Amino acid sequence: MNQNLPVDIRAEILRAAWAHEKYDDIVAHIQTDFGKKISKGTITKTLDRYDDTGSLLDKPRSGRPNSLTQEDEMAIVDAVENDPKLTAKDVYYDNDLNKSNVSLRKIQYLLNDHGLKATTTQPKQMPERALAIRLKFAQEYVKNPQFWSKVIFSDECDLYPYKSGKLYIRRHRREHPLSYYNMSTRWDKRTVKVWGCISIDGVGPLVLYDDKMDSTTLLDIFNTDLVPEYPGLIGTRTRPGPLLFQQDNAGPHRHHDVIKWFEDNHVHKIFWPPYSPDLNPIENVWGIVQDKLNEYNRDLKTSDDVWEKSKEIWENDINQYIPQLYESMHNRIVEVIERSGARLDR
Fold it and tell me: Does the CA dihedral 188-192-194-198 come out positive or negative?
Protein backbone atom coordinates (compact mmCIF):
# COMPACT_ATOMS: atom_id res chain seq x y z
CA MET A 1 0.00 0.00 0.00
CA ASN A 2 1.21 3.54 -0.70
CA GLN A 3 2.51 4.74 2.66
CA ASN A 4 1.55 8.33 1.75
CA LEU A 5 -2.07 7.53 0.95
CA PRO A 6 -4.29 9.25 3.55
CA VAL A 7 -6.50 7.04 5.71
CA ASP A 8 -9.70 8.77 4.52
CA ILE A 9 -8.87 7.84 0.92
CA ARG A 10 -8.14 4.25 1.96
CA ALA A 11 -11.49 4.14 3.73
CA GLU A 12 -13.26 5.45 0.63
CA ILE A 13 -11.55 2.80 -1.53
CA LEU A 14 -12.75 0.12 0.88
CA ARG A 15 -16.31 1.48 0.90
CA ALA A 16 -16.46 1.69 -2.88
CA ALA A 17 -15.09 -1.83 -3.32
CA TRP A 18 -17.65 -3.23 -0.87
CA ALA A 19 -20.32 -1.43 -2.89
CA HIS A 20 -19.06 -3.36 -5.95
CA GLU A 21 -17.97 -0.25 -7.80
CA LYS A 22 -15.69 -0.87 -10.78
CA TYR A 23 -12.00 -0.05 -10.36
CA ASP A 24 -12.15 2.55 -13.16
CA ASP A 25 -15.01 4.31 -11.36
CA ILE A 26 -13.12 4.24 -8.05
CA VAL A 27 -10.02 5.74 -9.68
CA ALA A 28 -12.16 8.46 -11.28
CA HIS A 29 -14.06 9.55 -8.19
CA ILE A 30 -10.96 9.50 -5.95
CA GLN A 31 -9.42 11.89 -8.50
CA THR A 32 -12.58 14.06 -8.49
CA ASP A 33 -13.40 14.04 -4.77
CA PHE A 34 -9.92 14.00 -3.26
CA GLY A 35 -7.72 15.38 -6.02
CA LYS A 36 -5.52 12.30 -5.70
CA LYS A 37 -4.48 10.20 -8.68
CA ILE A 38 -4.30 6.49 -7.85
CA SER A 39 -3.82 3.34 -9.90
CA LYS A 40 -5.83 0.12 -9.94
CA GLY A 41 -2.84 -1.52 -8.27
CA THR A 42 -3.20 0.88 -5.35
CA ILE A 43 -6.80 -0.27 -4.93
CA THR A 44 -5.73 -3.91 -4.91
CA LYS A 45 -2.95 -3.27 -2.39
CA THR A 46 -5.32 -1.33 -0.14
CA LEU A 47 -7.87 -4.16 -0.14
CA ASP A 48 -5.20 -6.83 0.37
CA ARG A 49 -3.69 -4.96 3.30
CA TYR A 50 -7.11 -4.63 4.91
CA ASP A 51 -7.80 -8.36 4.36
CA ASP A 52 -4.43 -9.22 5.94
CA THR A 53 -4.52 -6.88 8.93
CA GLY A 54 -8.15 -5.79 9.39
CA SER A 55 -6.85 -2.21 9.57
CA LEU A 56 -6.38 0.75 7.26
CA LEU A 57 -3.34 1.93 9.22
CA ASP A 58 0.25 1.12 8.32
CA LYS A 59 2.05 -1.41 10.45
CA PRO A 60 4.63 0.06 12.85
CA ARG A 61 8.13 0.18 11.37
CA SER A 62 10.03 -0.43 14.61
CA GLY A 63 10.84 -3.79 16.16
CA ARG A 64 11.61 -7.12 14.58
CA PRO A 65 11.66 -7.09 10.74
CA ASN A 66 8.56 -8.68 9.25
CA SER A 67 10.38 -11.19 7.03
CA LEU A 68 11.04 -14.91 6.69
CA THR A 69 14.38 -16.59 7.15
CA GLN A 70 15.52 -19.03 4.49
CA GLU A 71 14.78 -21.84 6.93
CA ASP A 72 11.23 -20.54 7.45
CA GLU A 73 10.71 -20.25 3.69
CA MET A 74 11.78 -23.83 3.07
CA ALA A 75 9.57 -25.05 5.93
CA ILE A 76 6.56 -23.42 4.25
CA VAL A 77 7.44 -24.79 0.82
CA ASP A 78 8.00 -28.30 2.22
CA ALA A 79 4.69 -28.17 4.10
CA VAL A 80 2.75 -27.21 0.96
CA GLU A 81 4.53 -29.81 -1.18
CA ASN A 82 3.67 -32.46 1.40
CA ASP A 83 0.06 -31.28 1.65
CA PRO A 84 -1.13 -29.68 -1.63
CA LYS A 85 -4.42 -28.69 0.02
CA LEU A 86 -2.56 -26.26 2.29
CA THR A 87 -3.48 -22.81 0.98
CA ALA A 88 -1.53 -19.58 1.34
CA LYS A 89 -4.18 -18.39 3.80
CA ASP A 90 -3.76 -21.59 5.84
CA VAL A 91 -0.03 -20.86 6.07
CA TYR A 92 -0.74 -17.23 6.98
CA TYR A 93 -2.91 -18.28 9.94
CA ASP A 94 -0.54 -21.05 11.09
CA ASN A 95 1.68 -19.60 13.81
CA ASP A 96 4.10 -22.53 13.54
CA LEU A 97 4.73 -21.88 9.84
CA ASN A 98 4.27 -18.09 9.75
CA LYS A 99 6.55 -17.41 12.69
CA SER A 100 7.37 -13.85 11.59
CA ASN A 101 3.72 -12.98 10.86
CA VAL A 102 4.43 -11.96 7.27
CA SER A 103 1.61 -10.84 4.99
CA LEU A 104 -0.61 -13.16 3.01
CA ARG A 105 0.69 -11.67 -0.23
CA LYS A 106 4.30 -12.41 0.73
CA ILE A 107 3.39 -16.05 1.31
CA GLN A 108 1.60 -16.17 -2.05
CA TYR A 109 4.68 -14.73 -3.76
CA LEU A 110 6.89 -17.28 -2.00
CA LEU A 111 4.80 -20.24 -3.16
CA ASN A 112 4.50 -18.92 -6.71
CA ASP A 113 8.27 -18.32 -6.86
CA HIS A 114 8.78 -22.00 -6.04
CA GLY A 115 6.47 -23.06 -8.85
CA LEU A 116 3.54 -23.99 -6.61
CA LYS A 117 0.56 -22.59 -8.51
CA ALA A 118 -2.98 -22.58 -7.14
CA THR A 119 -5.54 -24.51 -9.19
CA THR A 120 -8.91 -26.11 -8.63
CA THR A 121 -9.38 -29.88 -8.55
CA GLN A 122 -12.90 -29.60 -9.97
CA PRO A 123 -13.11 -32.45 -12.51
CA LYS A 124 -14.57 -31.90 -15.97
CA GLN A 125 -16.18 -35.31 -16.37
CA MET A 126 -17.66 -38.17 -14.38
CA PRO A 127 -18.06 -41.82 -15.43
CA GLU A 128 -20.76 -42.45 -18.04
CA ARG A 129 -22.44 -45.02 -15.81
CA ALA A 130 -22.67 -42.47 -12.97
CA LEU A 131 -24.23 -39.94 -15.34
CA ALA A 132 -26.87 -42.47 -16.36
CA ILE A 133 -27.69 -43.35 -12.73
CA ARG A 134 -27.99 -39.69 -11.75
CA LEU A 135 -30.22 -38.97 -14.74
CA LYS A 136 -32.52 -41.92 -13.95
CA PHE A 137 -32.67 -40.83 -10.29
CA ALA A 138 -33.66 -37.28 -11.31
CA GLN A 139 -36.30 -38.47 -13.77
CA GLU A 140 -37.90 -40.59 -11.03
CA TYR A 141 -38.14 -37.79 -8.46
CA VAL A 142 -38.89 -34.79 -10.69
CA LYS A 143 -42.56 -35.79 -10.79
CA ASN A 144 -43.19 -34.93 -7.13
CA PRO A 145 -41.61 -31.64 -5.96
CA GLN A 146 -43.15 -32.07 -2.47
CA PHE A 147 -41.42 -35.41 -1.95
CA TRP A 148 -38.34 -33.88 -0.34
CA SER A 149 -40.27 -32.40 2.58
CA LYS A 150 -40.45 -35.93 4.05
CA VAL A 151 -36.71 -36.63 3.78
CA ILE A 152 -34.14 -36.48 6.58
CA PHE A 153 -30.74 -35.70 5.05
CA SER A 154 -27.60 -36.83 6.87
CA ASP A 155 -23.83 -36.80 6.46
CA GLU A 156 -20.48 -36.84 8.24
CA CYS A 157 -18.00 -33.99 8.02
CA ASP A 158 -14.58 -32.97 9.30
CA LEU A 159 -15.02 -29.43 10.59
CA TYR A 160 -12.33 -26.85 11.16
CA PRO A 161 -12.02 -23.16 10.26
CA TYR A 162 -11.62 -22.88 6.52
CA LYS A 163 -13.39 -21.27 3.61
CA SER A 164 -15.78 -23.57 1.77
CA GLY A 165 -16.22 -23.82 -1.97
CA LYS A 166 -14.08 -25.43 -4.62
CA LEU A 167 -11.04 -27.24 -3.29
CA TYR A 168 -7.88 -25.50 -4.49
CA ILE A 169 -4.47 -27.12 -4.36
CA ARG A 170 -0.92 -25.91 -4.88
CA ARG A 171 0.83 -27.99 -7.51
CA HIS A 172 3.85 -27.85 -9.78
CA ARG A 173 3.21 -27.35 -13.49
CA ARG A 174 4.04 -30.97 -14.32
CA GLU A 175 1.34 -32.34 -11.99
CA HIS A 176 -2.12 -32.96 -13.41
CA PRO A 177 -4.90 -31.39 -11.26
CA LEU A 178 -7.27 -34.34 -11.72
CA SER A 179 -4.78 -36.55 -9.89
CA TYR A 180 -5.96 -34.72 -6.77
CA TYR A 181 -9.69 -35.17 -7.38
CA ASN A 182 -11.65 -36.63 -4.45
CA MET A 183 -8.89 -35.71 -2.01
CA SER A 184 -10.28 -35.33 1.47
CA THR A 185 -10.15 -31.91 3.07
CA ARG A 186 -6.73 -31.29 4.58
CA TRP A 187 -6.16 -32.25 8.17
CA ASP A 188 -5.92 -29.55 10.82
CA LYS A 189 -5.03 -30.12 14.48
CA ARG A 190 -8.29 -28.38 15.41
CA THR A 191 -10.43 -30.74 13.31
CA VAL A 192 -13.54 -32.29 14.82
CA LYS A 193 -15.42 -35.18 13.24
CA VAL A 194 -19.17 -34.77 13.34
CA TRP A 195 -22.32 -36.45 12.08
CA GLY A 196 -25.40 -34.34 11.52
CA CYS A 197 -28.82 -34.37 9.93
CA ILE A 198 -31.50 -31.91 8.88
CA SER A 199 -35.23 -31.99 8.23
CA ILE A 200 -37.53 -29.44 6.65
CA ASP A 201 -38.26 -28.20 10.20
CA GLY A 202 -34.60 -27.39 10.89
CA VAL A 203 -31.39 -28.94 12.10
CA GLY A 204 -31.38 -32.24 13.92
CA PRO A 205 -28.67 -33.60 16.22
CA LEU A 206 -25.02 -32.72 15.70
CA VAL A 207 -22.93 -35.57 17.07
CA LEU A 208 -19.20 -35.56 17.80
CA TYR A 209 -17.40 -38.85 17.21
CA ASP A 210 -13.80 -39.99 17.52
CA ASP A 211 -11.40 -41.40 14.97
CA LYS A 212 -13.10 -43.16 12.05
CA MET A 213 -16.80 -43.63 11.32
CA ASP A 214 -17.71 -47.33 11.35
CA SER A 215 -20.93 -49.32 11.49
CA THR A 216 -20.89 -49.56 15.30
CA THR A 217 -20.57 -45.79 15.70
CA LEU A 218 -23.23 -45.19 13.06
CA LEU A 219 -25.73 -47.53 14.70
CA ASP A 220 -25.09 -45.93 18.09
CA ILE A 221 -25.89 -42.53 16.55
CA PHE A 222 -29.05 -43.92 14.95
CA ASN A 223 -30.34 -45.37 18.23
CA THR A 224 -29.21 -42.61 20.59
CA ASP A 225 -29.64 -39.46 18.51
CA LEU A 226 -31.53 -40.02 15.25
CA VAL A 227 -34.58 -42.04 16.29
CA PRO A 228 -35.36 -40.05 19.49
CA GLU A 229 -35.32 -36.87 17.37
CA TYR A 230 -37.30 -38.37 14.47
CA PRO A 231 -39.52 -41.23 15.69
CA GLY A 232 -41.48 -40.87 12.45
CA LEU A 233 -38.66 -42.74 10.69
CA ILE A 234 -39.68 -46.00 12.38
CA GLY A 235 -42.33 -48.02 10.60
CA THR A 236 -44.05 -51.37 11.04
CA ARG A 237 -43.90 -54.65 9.15
CA THR A 238 -46.71 -53.54 6.86
CA ARG A 239 -46.16 -49.80 6.67
CA PRO A 240 -43.04 -47.56 6.64
CA GLY A 241 -42.92 -44.48 8.82
CA PRO A 242 -43.99 -41.09 7.47
CA LEU A 243 -40.39 -39.88 7.22
CA LEU A 244 -37.72 -41.08 4.81
CA PHE A 245 -33.98 -41.25 5.41
CA GLN A 246 -31.13 -40.27 3.08
CA GLN A 247 -27.51 -41.24 3.44
CA ASP A 248 -24.70 -41.67 0.92
CA ASN A 249 -22.93 -44.82 -0.20
CA ALA A 250 -19.91 -44.73 2.12
CA GLY A 251 -18.68 -48.06 3.45
CA PRO A 252 -20.18 -47.96 6.98
CA HIS A 253 -23.60 -47.13 5.53
CA ARG A 254 -23.52 -50.31 3.42
CA HIS A 255 -22.40 -52.59 6.25
CA HIS A 256 -24.70 -55.59 6.72
CA ASP A 257 -25.42 -54.62 10.36
CA VAL A 258 -26.60 -51.20 9.23
CA ILE A 259 -28.71 -52.67 6.44
CA LYS A 260 -30.26 -55.08 8.95
CA TRP A 261 -31.03 -52.15 11.31
CA PHE A 262 -33.03 -50.45 8.56
CA GLU A 263 -34.90 -53.68 7.83
CA ASP A 264 -35.61 -54.48 11.50
CA ASN A 265 -36.89 -50.97 12.20
CA HIS A 266 -38.78 -50.69 8.89
CA VAL A 267 -37.04 -47.42 8.05
CA HIS A 268 -37.53 -46.37 4.44
CA LYS A 269 -34.09 -45.34 3.12
CA ILE A 270 -34.11 -43.69 -0.29
CA PHE A 271 -31.54 -44.72 -2.89
CA TRP A 272 -28.80 -42.12 -3.37
CA PRO A 273 -26.78 -42.03 -6.62
CA PRO A 274 -22.95 -42.12 -6.58
CA TYR A 275 -20.91 -38.96 -7.22
CA SER A 276 -23.78 -36.85 -5.89
CA PRO A 277 -22.78 -34.65 -2.93
CA ASP A 278 -24.02 -31.73 -5.07
CA LEU A 279 -27.58 -33.01 -4.60
CA ASN A 280 -27.42 -33.23 -0.81
CA PRO A 281 -28.41 -29.93 0.85
CA ILE A 282 -26.57 -30.82 4.05
CA GLU A 283 -23.35 -30.29 2.09
CA ASN A 284 -24.40 -26.64 1.83
CA VAL A 285 -24.98 -26.62 5.58
CA TRP A 286 -21.43 -27.85 6.20
CA GLY A 287 -20.17 -25.08 3.94
CA ILE A 288 -22.06 -22.48 5.97
CA VAL A 289 -20.71 -23.85 9.26
CA GLN A 290 -17.15 -23.91 7.93
CA ASP A 291 -17.37 -20.36 6.59
CA LYS A 292 -18.64 -19.13 9.94
CA LEU A 293 -15.89 -21.06 11.77
CA ASN A 294 -13.39 -19.35 9.47
CA GLU A 295 -14.58 -15.97 10.73
CA TYR A 296 -13.27 -16.98 14.17
CA ASN A 297 -10.10 -18.64 12.82
CA ARG A 298 -7.58 -16.91 15.05
CA ASP A 299 -9.70 -17.40 18.17
CA LEU A 300 -10.08 -21.17 17.74
CA LYS A 301 -6.94 -22.72 19.17
CA THR A 302 -8.02 -26.30 19.87
CA SER A 303 -10.48 -28.92 18.67
CA ASP A 304 -12.54 -28.23 21.80
CA ASP A 305 -12.83 -24.59 20.72
CA VAL A 306 -13.98 -25.68 17.25
CA TRP A 307 -16.54 -28.13 18.68
CA GLU A 308 -18.06 -25.54 21.01
CA LYS A 309 -18.24 -22.93 18.25
CA SER A 310 -19.67 -25.51 15.79
CA LYS A 311 -22.49 -26.36 18.22
CA GLU A 312 -23.23 -22.67 18.69
CA ILE A 313 -23.40 -22.08 14.93
CA TRP A 314 -25.46 -25.23 14.35
CA GLU A 315 -28.04 -24.33 17.00
CA ASN A 316 -28.30 -20.59 16.37
CA ASP A 317 -27.43 -19.80 12.75
CA ILE A 318 -28.42 -22.66 10.44
CA ASN A 319 -32.21 -22.93 10.69
CA GLN A 320 -32.72 -19.74 8.68
CA TYR A 321 -31.20 -21.47 5.62
CA ILE A 322 -33.14 -24.76 5.82
CA PRO A 323 -36.39 -23.74 4.03
CA GLN A 324 -34.49 -22.37 1.04
CA LEU A 325 -32.29 -25.49 0.85
CA TYR A 326 -35.31 -27.79 0.81
CA GLU A 327 -36.99 -25.60 -1.81
CA SER A 328 -33.86 -25.95 -3.95
CA MET A 329 -34.15 -29.74 -4.19
CA HIS A 330 -36.67 -29.73 -7.04
CA ASN A 331 -34.53 -27.23 -8.98
CA ARG A 332 -31.46 -29.44 -8.46
CA ILE A 333 -33.34 -32.43 -9.85
CA VAL A 334 -34.54 -30.44 -12.85
CA GLU A 335 -31.02 -29.19 -13.49
CA VAL A 336 -29.60 -32.72 -13.42
CA ILE A 337 -32.05 -33.66 -16.16
CA GLU A 338 -31.14 -30.55 -18.16
CA ARG A 339 -27.47 -31.49 -17.85
CA SER A 340 -28.05 -35.16 -18.74
CA GLY A 341 -26.80 -36.22 -15.34
CA ALA A 342 -23.78 -33.93 -15.08
CA ARG A 343 -22.85 -32.32 -11.78
CA LEU A 344 -24.24 -28.98 -10.66
CA ASP A 345 -22.34 -25.75 -10.06
CA ARG A 346 -23.13 -25.51 -6.36
Answer: negative
